[in-house]
Queue: 4 jobs
Job 1
Amino acid sequence: MIGFRNVRKTYRLSGIRKVVIDNLSLDLPSDRNIAILGRNGAGKSTLMRLIAGAELPDEGRIIRRGKVSWPLGFAGGFNGSMTGIENARFVARMYGEDTERVVEFVEDFSELGQSMQLPINTYSSGMKARLAFGVSMAIDFSYYLIDEITAVGDDRFKRKCDEVFQKKIETSKIIMISHSIATIRKFCQSGCFMDDGRLYYYEDVEAAIEAHTRAQS
């Protein structure tokens, strides 16, 4: 279960305080795959980072019961001066995982070869995404957070990502942001619609899609 207790999040932009999330209290069910819908700039990615713990709310608290991933493909939490192997080991230790098992999986999955021994500030964005996705798949999370991405790399590597991702979600749940309604319908049973600092939960994903569609018209 992921729960919000009086959560408020704001940003200051050009001297103006923008409310992204205003006094949110809600429990997301642990037995559903959940989509997050809303217009561009509504705060969907901010909400995802709050759930992941990558950002903190201004007020309130977020309850996580279970192991929650960072957004798939997101490499922003890596240390650029550390090698790919060192970053994989660090994440493994942080989540209480066997470090060598994680490193072995990531080396095999990412196909980065000798680059795993180089600092990741020498990596291209695609290489960082492969490393981040590989580390994500090396750990069994209760929730996988997906911000527009379920695979990275070229077509062959994307198929590889999709295969391992499909296996993961057989025993885990996902919270997903996607502009593709077809993708949301494929993966999610329920949905949240974000609008003007508010988050509305719908048990049926079709109701969330309808609310989102009405807001666009």
Job 2
Amino acid sequence: MRPTDPSPATLALLSAVALEEAVRAFGVAPMLKWPNDLLVDGAKLSGILLERAGDAIAVGIGVNLAAAPEGLDRAATSLAALGVTVDPEIFAEVLAESFGRWLERWRGEGMWPVHERWLAKAHPEGTALTARLADGSSFDGLFGGLDSSGALILRLADGTTRAIHAGDVFLL
């Protein structure tokens, strides 16, 4: 990380945008689910994990290219199941190019272009969601967009909003 980089937390959204662009290059149009999952017809195609160690952040990206795991608590799919056969090395090259472009924009222009692309490729505002937080609490509401830090804005039934910075989000 450079001292002038945007918040490290926004790398999850940057990674999702880059991955969405890479998958789209192979003819599949996934939907982004906060903060960094890709879904196709409601089934999970990929996920992203970030790990911080000092000033470094490792981005781990998993994409179901040839097969999807079975026995999960949610539907999963793969590019192969969607009729796309791609060599892992080719996919990695396309992803690396996309990630590099988005990283350059993030560093040069800030979070705004990432924020806008993420919203354009995500579930629409008003989508019903459940957010489960690390402390075991959960909140049902409607997707109200993202704040400037990339947190999910959840509109609750009582009219209030809650910023979700970390947790598991499920589309209802």
Job 3
Amino acid sequence: MEANKTILQMKYARIVAIFAKESGLALEDALAFFYDSDTYKLISEGVADMHCRSDEYLADELMIEYKEKLS
């Protein structure tokens, strides 16, 4: 399923804001990480309807990916 592009952009903004707060990253750094993440690729490609998951769930997925890249 393909989501509305405007709605997806608003969702991305919410996810990045949550992720930035949880990770302690600046919004710009959180945004850069988000657009380079596997999570973003899955959401944007519509894999498993990831865009239907909650913002908090997707931010948590980003956090897991972020911690894995740090170690």
Job 4
Amino acid sequence: MSEILLGCHVSMSKPDYLLTSAQLAVSFGANTFMFYTGAPQNSVRIPIDQLKISEFRQYLTEHKINIQNLVVHAPYIVNIASDDRFKKIMAVRILKEEIKRTEKIGCKYLVLHSGNAIGISKDIAIQNAIDNLNELNQFNKNVIICLETMSGKGTEIGRNFDELTKIIQGVKNKKLIGVCLDTCHINDAGYDPKKIDDVLNQFEKIIGLNYLKVIHLNDSKNTLGAHKDRHENIGYGTIGFDTLLKYVYDERLKNIPKILETPWWNDKPLYKEEIQVLKNKQWVNYRT
């Protein structure tokens, strides 16, 4: 089997920005990673030419990391399902900028939350998401927007495979749409990740595994179907190490980047330890 694609969410900080992200990921033993192109909670962005893109690419080449396996996450403040005209305009404007930045950096995956049905029906929210994605794709040429499976808290859409496939069916350019499967989120939404064959068979039947582009590999603090979305370190949650190991090594998922978004412990990330135990396929108590 070829080398597994396993990494984590890393921050980007000045003065070296993207280069810092890559260096962090390599220090954790990752060969893929995910990052925001600015703060996730707002749309303030430094100019793209200050992100150290050439140094970033050179560093990736030196460490044999394929930029095509990296993942950008869109700001979580946008709601592409909103019925509010101003919020819709702002969401499209912000996402156009993220698409432009993702393409300029050289990545092809942009993870996006499907939005929230605030004060409207799920059907209207889903149609709003479709309309906005189609508008974006008139501008977008190469970036695959990956809708994330959500836990189902509050008014979220994308809480099940049926809602995601409705959006995908409405998107005209199917080459520019995909799905990011989050193991914590599907657990909290009611899909039992321990039954990996059932999960992947349902995904194939309802959406199609060809649309699965990214996996967020997280344990969960919550019981099945809790609709809460609280991530846990690998092996310390209700999903468990043995189950998450299956998602790393399953042949059907081998070419898909797996990204850890697990919590820090004692004020530090545990990505290095988590990646190591997953690569070793052997559980040890690393959270001490």
